[in-house]
Design brief:
Elements lengths: L2 E5 L2 E4 L4 E8 L7 E7 L6 E6 L6 E3 L7 E7 L5 E7 L8 E8 L10 E4 L3 E6 L1
Parallel strand pairs: 2-11
Antiparallel strand pairs: 1-3, 3-8, 4-5, 4-9, 5-6, 7-8, 9-10, 9-11
Length: 126
């Protein structure tokens, strides 16, 4: 099982930037896809972005294309980190952001995931 821990959330003004990080560990980490989801108050959790095991394939929901970038890296101790760089933030980006692991990057938008982090709050003020 992959263990996930998010960080980097906070309060930012409209048009500002934040970078979220998700530290992942686990025996099979190198073979899984990683992604970000978000959930605003009173709304369902929705897919934001995902990246495959080697970082060569990325997918995004339409509302964040051109503003958000997902990336990942891996150190020699097999501790992996996935990032979500968020630029040109809007009030509608306000939500709790969750990191997730899955078995295939193209299944992530369907929320076919194996592990979830605890979430980190992002608030965009106008």
């Amino acid at each position: 099982q992959v263990r996930l821990e998010e960080s980097g959330g906070g309060l930012v003004q409209v048009g500002g930037s934040l970078r979220l990080s998700c530290a992942a560990s686990g025996r099979t980490f190198s073979t899984v896809a990683l992604g970000w989801f978000r959930q605003a108050p009173g709304k369902e959790r929705q897919f934001v972005a995902a990246i495959n095991w080697n970082g060569e394939t990325t997918i995004y929901t339409d509302s964040v294309k051109g503003r958000f970038t997902i990336s990942r890296d891996r150190d020699n101790n097999a501790k992996n980190t996935v990032y979500l760089q968020m630029n040109s933030l809007k009030p509608e980006d306000t939500a709790v952001y969750y990191c997730a692991a899955g078995y295939a990057v193209r299944q992530m938008p369907s929320m076919k995931t194996s592990s979830w982090g605890q979430g980190t709050q992002v608030t965009v003020s106008s």
